[in-house]
Amino acid sequence: MGVGHGHGHAGGGTGGATGHAGARHRWRLAVAFGLIASFFVVELVVGLISGSLALISDAGHMAADVVTLGAALVATKIATRADSTGRRTYGSYRAEVFASGLAVLMMLGVAAYVVVEAVGRIGRGGSGPDIETGPMLVVGFLGLVVNVIALLLLRAGSQDSLNVKGAYLEVVADTAGSVGVMAAGILIVVTGDGVWDTVVAFLIGAFVAVRAVMLGREVLAVLGQHVPAGVDIDTVAGALGEIEGVCDVHDLHAWTLTSGMHVATAHLVLVEGADGAGVLRDGQVLLRERFQIEHATLQVEGHRSAACDAVTW
């Protein structure tokens, strides 16, 4: 016997969008996408003209931003689309998690390119071509302004949605890149040594790689169906076991479908004469209010089922 609270997972309609973290912040992603995409072209052209690896590396990372933000926008649309096939019983919410995974791959790719190029320049014993510091400083400052605006737009959603967080971290890394470009330009002007361009580019690449690994761990935790962050499964089992009428809890599983959407299943063994309907209701309320697990499928049993004991995994 199970109980739910509205089992439609198609994600379509107003209700789906309203309850979906990524969809609530879609307009922020759209505005940030427009800003970043427009400035990327400017930075790439100036980087090629000036010969600055730091500027080109930052433009490459901004290109990753464009792809990531675009994928995030598409993912929020797909995640709230109604399922017309009848095969996606959880809807398409995980499209956002895959978009976050794409953000990780893009960040790692850009970081690898920048680090390899920087090491190559150092290995050749030079700092590369002559660098025009004027364009570096101007574009670095403009990039900083654009990125700060995008950060302010995405910051609110980064706490609610893994998808938005991926885009937010991309922009955080790009903001650091803009600061790095300006720092490289100033150091070259002060010292007259173009090696600072290579050094700063290397640091930007390393910073981006670290942020990518951190986000990648979160993505893998969701795809691996780990227990939701901040939830202790033993505590959940103990709380369910304390519900009046429950004598045992087994086959308890909890995982994250997508950001802000936690799911759980459990079998509750009842004492003789217990109110099964009341136990189900209390279990749902407990999981929702104490552990923020809104969708829980609970099964009550008069005694521990032999079928459960026969499961080999």
CATH class of the largest domain: Mainly Alpha
Q: Tell me which CATH architecture of the largest domain applies here.
A: Up-down Bundle
Helix content: 55-70%
Our estimate of the beta-strand percent is: 5-15%
Give a count of the beta strands, DSSP E runs of length 2 or more: 3
CATH homologous superfamily grouping of the largest domain? Cation efflux protein transmembrane domain
Average pLDDT, to the nearest integer? 80
Query: Helix count, per DSSP?
Result: 11
Radius of gyration: 25 Å
* Terminal residue distance: 22 Å
Major beta sheet summary? 3 strands, mixed
Q: Determine the structural class based on helices, strands and strand pairing.
A: mainly alpha
Enumerate the spans where pLDDT stays under 50 for 5 or more consecutive residues: 1-19
Organism: Nocardioides humi
Keywords: Ion transport, Membrane, Transmembrane, Transmembrane helix, Transport
Pfam families: Cation_efflux, ZT_dimer
Subcellular location: Membrane
